[in-house]
Write a structure and sequence with these properties.
The structure holds two protein chains of two kinds.
Chain A: H1 2-23, H2 29-36, H3 42-61, H4 76-93, H5 97-105, H6 109-135, H7 149-152, H8 158-177
Chain B: H1 11-28, H2 36-50, H3 52-56, H4 59-62, H5 70-88, H6 99-104, H7 109-129, H8 136-143, H9 147-168
Helix pairs in contact in B: 8-9
Chain lengths: 180, 170
């Protein structure tokens, strides 16, 4: 029963996320590709704003012990190689794993037939390559694995999250001022 | 409730709400937003139907519980949520080839599906290699000030921008 409750939480949070992705326009190929072609900055505006709110929220909730800061394992090397491979796919497909689910919901057939299936097959491919990549030292774990500033810098997190937020706000203001 | 039928909301409103949703998810479900792990689980469950032994002996799949979970329901929820939103705003349409691709590249359905499939393969491999996607790293990991997430997110966009310019030109 506890498990069912958790599944329903996932469904509800996903429902809200999908609703927001569509309303933000980012379940749409044309808008995502507009970002990658640097002609439409909707994606960056949404991401930066979500980061500011999330980061400031965590700055308040984490010291009170209300949320845990669990970050991903891995290495800078994995993040660069995997990130660039992901980026190539992002540019070819025009959706990412979250927005493609949104695109499926809006009736994008290329998202259903090609992209969604392609991502699943890609993960199967990776699972089968994993042991070789790890044994050959291509896939690594380094000191930045599960590394977060929230753990590393003691004291009140707002001391560094407010300046970081300010930088992101300035970038958004610059984007708006040049009319993108 | 008129705003529910708007075709688009301001990106800043959407960004604030996604940020709050992410915090809500961390508070209620003890998990931030993320999508790509679920694709791996769906793949593992699907692959297991064909070759159970191979999945059970696979080191990568052994690190994960392959079952219907919170994250897979999150993906189902995203599909339904976007469907409801697009119906409300009257923008739902069955489209095989996106407008930008059709007008600038080709209106061939086969070519678009093929490129989408190849793009998907890269996303699948890349998201697992980097341990996350535009949601898990780009929104959640960055909010949690993870160095790996910031590096991965920048790499996502560098790769994406380079390929977008290779496809569409300057």
């Amino acid at each position: 029963m506890k498990n069912t409750k958790r599944l329903m939480q996932g469904l509800l949070i996903g429902l809200l996320f999908g609703f927001l992705l569509q309303k933000g326009g980012v379940a749409n190929y044309n808008i995502i590709m507009g970002q990658l072609r640097l002609t439409d900055f909707t994606v960056i505006k949404i991401i930066f704003t979500a980061i500011i709110v999330g980061m400031l929220g965590v700055s308040y909730l984490f010291p009170k012990g209300l949320v845990s800061v669990k970050t991903k394992a891995g290495s800078i090397k994995n993040a660069i190689i995997g990130g660039l491979l992901f980026g190539a796919g992002f540019g070819l497909l025009g959706y990412c794993p979250g927005t493609i689910a949104g695109a499926v919901g809006t009736g994008a057939l290329d998202a259903i037939t090609g992209g969604f299936i392609g991502i699943i097959l890609g993960t199967v491919l990776y699972a089968n390559m994993f042991k070789t990549l790890k044994d050959k030292g291509i896939h690594t774990t380094d000191k930045y694995s599960e590394f977060s500033l929230f753990h590393k810098i003691p004291g009140n997190p707002f001391r560094y999250t407010l300046p970081i937020s300010a930088v992101l706000v300035v970038v958004l203001l610059v984007i708006e001022s040049v009319g993108l | 409730m008129n705003f529910l039928t708007f075709e688009m909301w301001s990106p800043y409103v959407v960004g604030v709400l996604i940020g709050l949703l992410n915090l809500g998810s961390m508070l209620v479900s003890k998990k931030p937003l993320g999508a790509s792990t679920s694709f791996m689980k769906i793949g593992g469950i699907g692959f297991g139907l064909f070759n159970k032994e191979k999945v059970e002996s696979n080191e990568y799949y052994q690190k994960n519980e392959l079952e219907l979970d919170w994250g897979i329901l999150l993906i189902v929820g995203i599909i339904i949520g976007a469907f409801i939103s697009s119906i409300l705003s009257g923008s739902f349409s069955l489209t095989a080839v996106p407008t930008m691709w059709a007008t600038e590249i080709s209106d061939s359905v086969f070519l678009r599906f093929l490129i989408a499939l190849i793009g998907g393969l890269f996303l699948g491999v890349g998201s697992r290699w980097a341990s996350g996607c535009t949601s898990g790293h780009g929104i959640s990991g960055t909010s949690l000030l993870s160095v790996i997430s910031w590096v991965a997110s920048i790499a996502f966009f560098i790769g994406g921008i380079v390929v977008a310019f290779l496809i569409y030109g300057m």
